[in-house]
Design goal:
With 495 residues, the chain is mainly alpha-helical. It has a domain of 85 residues. 71% of the residues lie in helices and 0% in strands. The chain contains 24 helices and no strands. α9 runs parallel beside α24. The protein is globular and about 85 Å long. The two termini are 44 Å apart. Keywords: Membrane, Transmembrane, Transmembrane helix. This is Glycosyltransferase RgtA/B/C/D-like domain-containing protein.
Length: 495
C-alpha cells in the first residue's frame, strides 16, 4: 500500500471510527480492571445471593436483575460479568454517539466528547457500583442510540428489537423508569411514523410526495404509534416478570408499603393516627418509630432508619399489617392532601437540592464480603476517589445535585423549541437533507425532567444514583447540541 493510500485511509471516517472505538475500549478496560467485580451495597448483595441460588427470589428488588446476573454467571462463571455488561452498554452508547457526531459533519474534537462522557466524574461515580439505577440508565441510553440509528440510517429497523429489549429491562429493573421511558416511547412512535411516511413517499410519485409534504403533522398517528411502543414495553415487562416468577418462584414482599409507611408516619399527626381504626400494635409501632426518626433528624426511609424493618427485623422482610397500613394511608393521607403535599415537598426539597453517596468506597463493601463476593482493587480509590469527591464534588458540588441537571434539561428544551422549527424548514429546503439531532436532544432532556419530577411521590433518600439517568441524559444531549451547532455553522443552514 502506497503512502498516499495509507494517508487517505488514516483520514477516512472509518479510521476515525476505529480510533473512537479504541479510546472507548481502552477506558472500559482500565475501569473494569480497577473496579472488578463491582462495588456492592446491601441491596446488590441481596440480589447476588438470589442470582447464585443461595436465597429465594423476592420482588423487594426487581428479580429481572438477579435473573440476568444468574445467566451471566452461568455463561462466564464470574460475578463481575454484570459490571462488564453495565460498562459495555455505556461504552456502546458513547461510541455510537461519537460516530454519529463525526459522520454528520461535526469537527472531530466534538465527536471525541462521546467516549469522553465515560470519564466524567458523575459517570465514574455511579459506574463503579452495580446499582440497578446504573443498569437502568445505561440500558435506556443505548436504546435511544439504537432508535436514533433506525431514524438516520436506512435499512436498520431490526435494531428496534434490541432497543425494545433494553427498554423492557430498564423498566423491569426499576419500575419508576416508566417516567423516563414515556418520552422515549413518544420519540419512538414519532420515528416509526417518520419512517413509514418516508417509505410511502419514496414508493409514490413526486406529486403524491409533494402532497404528503403539505399535510399537517400526523399527531394522531404519532400518538397511536407511541402507545403501541409503550404497550410493547409494558407487555414485555409483564411477560418477563411472569416468566421469572414461573421459573424461580418469586416471593411477594409488598415493597410499596415502605412508601405508605413514610407518608403515614410523617404526614399524619399523632391525634389522627391514634383515633384511626388501624390495629393498636401498628399505631404504637408507627408512633414510637416516628419519635426515633425525628430524634435522628430523619423524615424519610423509615423502614431502614427507625421502624426496625419488617416482621423478622431482618433486611427486606415484609412489613406487618400491610393491608391495614394501606387502609390507613387511604383514610388519613389521601383525605388530607395539604399535609401530604407539605410532607412530600419537604422530602423532595432535600432530594432536589442535596446529595450523598456520590462515590462508593471499597471500605464500604462489608455486605459484599458477607455475600462472599470477591474483593475489588483498593488502588481504584486512590486513583478515582480524589477525582470524584475532592475535585468534582469539592469544587463543583452542583454537578451532583438534581436541580443542576433539571436546569440543564430545561435550557436544552428551550433551545430545541426555539431552533427545531427553523432547522426543519432548512432541512426541507435542502437538497442533501443534512442530519438534525434536535429530536434526540428534546427527548433526552424531556426524559431527564420526567424522571426527576416523577420522584416527587416516592423519593426515599437523596442518593445521587437517583439522579444518574438525568445527568447522563443531559450530558449526551449537550454533546448532540454542540454537534448540531457546529454542523449548522459549517453548512450555514440554521441559527
Amino acid at each position: 500500500m502506497s503512502r498516499s493510500a495509507i494517508r487517505r485511509w488514516l483520514t477516512s471516517p472509518l479510521a476515525w471510527d476505529l480510533l473512537l472505538a479504541l479510546f472507548t475500549v481502552a477506558w472500559s478496560f482500565i475501569f473494569l480492571r480497577l473496579f472488578w467485580p463491582g462495588r456492592v451495597n446491601v441491596d446488590i448483595a441481596n440480589q447476588y445471593l438470589q442470582a447464585t441460588g443461595k436465597i429465594p427470589y423476592s420482588d423487594w428488588h426487581a428479580p429481572v436483575m438477579s435473573a440476568v446476573w444468574r445467566i451471566l454467571i452461568d455463561i462466564t462463571g464470574d460475578p463481575g460479568s454484570l459490571l462488564m455488561l453495565q460498562v459495555g452498554l455505556l461504552a456502546a452508547a458513547a461510541w455510537g454517539i461519537g460516530v454519529f457526531v463525526h459522520r454528520s459533519g461535526a469537527p472531530r474534537w466534538v465527536s471525541l466528547l462521546g467516549p469522553t462522557i465515560m470519564v466524567t466524574p458523575w459517570a465514574v461515580s455511579q459506574m463503579t457500583t452495580l446499582w440497578k439505577d446504573s443498569q437502568m440508565a445505561v440500558a435506556i441510553l443505548l436504546a435511544v442510540v439504537l432508535i436514533m440509528i433506525t431514524r438516520l440510517v436506512p435499512k436498520t429497523w431490526l435494531l428496534w428489537l434490541p432497543a425494545l429489549a433494553l427498554l423492557v429491562y430498564a423498566v423491569g429493573v426499576r419500575k419508576n423508569a416508566v417516567f423516563a421511558v414515556v418520552p422515549i416511547a413518544v420519540y419512538g412512535g414519532w420515528c416509526l411514523v417518520h419512517l413509514w411516511r418516508h417509505r410511502r413517499g419514496r414508493s409514490g410519485d413526486s406529486a403524491t410526495s409533494a402532497g404528503s409534504a403539505k399535510k399537517g403533522r400526523p399527531f394522531l398517528l404519532t400518538a397511536v404509534s407511541s402507545l403501541i411502543v409503550l404497550g410493547l414495553i409494558g407487555g414485555g415487562v409483564k411477560v418477563t416478570d411472569a416468566v421469572i416468577d414461573s421459573q424461580m418462584g418469586v416471593t411477594k414482599t409488598g415493597q410499596i408499603s415502605q412508601i405508605f409507611l413514610d407518608d403515614v408516619m410523617f404526614s399524619v399527626p399523632e391525634s389522627r393516627l391514634q383515633s384511626s381504626d388501624a390495629p393498636r400494635a401498628l399505631k404504637d409501632h408507627i408512633s414510637s418509630a416516628r419519635d426515633k426518626c425525628l430524634k435522628r433528624g430523619e423524615i424519610w426511609d423509615a423502614y431502614w432508619n427507625c421502624y426496625g424493618r419488617g416482621t423478622t427485623g431482618k433486611a427486606f422482610s415484609p412489613i406487618a399489617y400491610q393491608d391495614e397500613l394501606k387502609s390507613l394511608w387511604l383514610s388519613e393521607v389521601v383525605t388530607h392532601p395539604v399535609s401530604y403535599i407539605e410532607y412530600r415537598i419537604s422530602v423532595y426539597s432535600s432530594y432536589f437540592f442535596t446529595s450523598k453517596l456520590e462515590y462508593w468506597e471499597a471500605d464500604w463493601d462489608g455486605d459484599a464480603q458477607k455475600a462472599r463476593l470477591p474483593a475489588g482493587s483498593a488502588k481504584a480509590d486512590y486513583i478515582f476517589r480524589p477525582y470524584v469527591e475532592d475535585f468534582a464534588l469539592g469544587t463543583f458540588p452542583m454537578l451532583f445535585k438534581p436541580w443542576f441537571w433539571t436546569l440543564g434539561a430545561v435550557l436544552l428544551l428551550g433551545l430545541g423549541y426555539r431552533s427545531h422549527s427553523r432547522t426543519r424548514r432548512e432541512l426541507n429546503a435542502s437538497a442533501h437533507r443534512p442530519r438534525s439531532f434536535w429530536s434526540e436532544i428534546t427527548v433526552l432532556a424531556a426524559s431527564a425532567l420526567c424522571y426527576i419530577f416523577g420522584y416527587f411521590p416516592i423519593v426515599p433518600a437523596n442518593h445521587f444514583r437517583y439522579t444518574f439517568w438525568p445527568a447522563l441524559a443531559v450530558t449526551f444531549a449537550f454533546v448532540l447540541w454542540l454537534a448540531q451547532r457546529r454542523i449548522q455553522r459549517v453548512r450555514n443552514i440554521g441559527p
